[in-house]
Amino acid sequence: MKVLIVGGGGREHALAWKCAQSPRVDEVLVAPGNAGTELEPGVRNVNIAATDTERLVELAKREAVELTIIGPEAPLVAGITDAFQARGLRCFGPSRLAARLEGSKAFTKDFLQRHRIPTAGYRVFNRASYDAVWLRAQKTPIVIKASGLASGKGVVIAQNLQEAESAVQEMFAGRFGEAGSEIVIEEFMQGEEASFIVMADGTQVLPLATSQDHKRLLDHDEGPNTGGMGAYSPAPVITSAVHARVMREVIDPTIRGLREDGSPFTGFLYAGLMVGDDGTVKVVEFNCRLGDPETQPILARLRSDLTVLCDAAIDGNLAQVEAEWDSRVALGVVLAAAGYPEQVRSGDAIDGLEAAALLPGKVFHAGTRRADAQCVTSGGRVLCAVGLGNHISDARRDAYALVSCLHYDGMSYRHDIGYRAIARE
Ligand SMILES: Nc1ncnc2c1ncn2[C@@H]1O[C@H](COP(=O)(O)OP(=O)(O)OP(=O)(O)O)[C@@H](O)[C@H]1O
Ligand SMILES: [Mg+2]
Questions:
Q1: Is 141 in the pocket of ligand 1 (CB under 6 A)?
Q2: What digits encode the pLDDT tens for the residues 202-213?
């Protein structure tokens, strides 16, 4: 069969690489893909943007694609799954209605409250309803969020009320466009964050391996927030007791609530969680797709055929399948481009990919493209080097061995990926 992966980042390279290993799969198409998917055996790039739903539907029809997996959130929130299904095409991802869980933080907070799922206390405002007097009575730090999609940039953790007030004003002034016309103001939560991703078929869920990422640009969790500078799987903070609690208090009621509300969720559901010292769990956010860079270490550990799992989910048969995991730890280090996460420079030649390919582990591409015979940078997060090992320190050693092969002008990365898990070891 042919599989289509929609998107062109590190997550999509990992999805394409994984699907291409399936004995059922003849060819994987990636739209638009990157230089990594272009060079991956059994994978072909097709130059169509991830948001160009009409041309993607045509492509899937023309190539007789039997399974499409959507990587990024923007097409999901815009309803790409509905468009594929309306044309009789099998597509793994939530409907437009179910994708509101990521597309509108205001919707999600109200949903969580209505279904009594633990999350930070909050209020939702638009320009007309905004209550500055209320804000001035709140404790700090306090969190201000643009309700809509803002590529991971629409969250401000304000340390004092002046910062909070100016974040609110910037959002209403259009800093994130339409996404900031409605805002959520919520309590600051203490604890350790973890990513809990499941596959859902509308009713049943299959939890994937747990993971943790590193959002801040610099070592010791300093510097600005980014899309993620590295990740590892599993996340030791998710003990089996916490895992059971997340399923009971977060995942099950979310899937049930969405079904009862008439928008059942089929796809990857990503719960961003805050785990307290006492083992309590609160929802930070939902994403309606796999995380990047969490996907790279997670899929590096998946032994099962991902296409079989996606097919089971589309057919509402997730209860019939199980996922088998490599017991080793996987750890991925993101290599960023000059200027990331602000003004990113593109076009820097990448050296060392051939040398890295001879070592254990895997280098996934993200913001890369081919210019003649050379791979060059073409985005903020350029590569993700993943190592595997019996202990997190072994996985980390292998990942950084890959990193030391690689070079381009302006390359930057964190040196401390996995430090939390290593401290627990
Ligand atoms: N209430 C909160 N208390 C403490 N930290 C928070 C809170 N809300 C958000 N954060 C921090 O801000 C980060 C981004 O917030 P959130 O996940 O809601 O935004 P996002 O833009 O949807 O992120 P992503 O790009 O991961 O989808 C979180 O990972 C967390 O570190
Ligand atoms: Mg999000």
A1: no
A2: 999 999 999 999
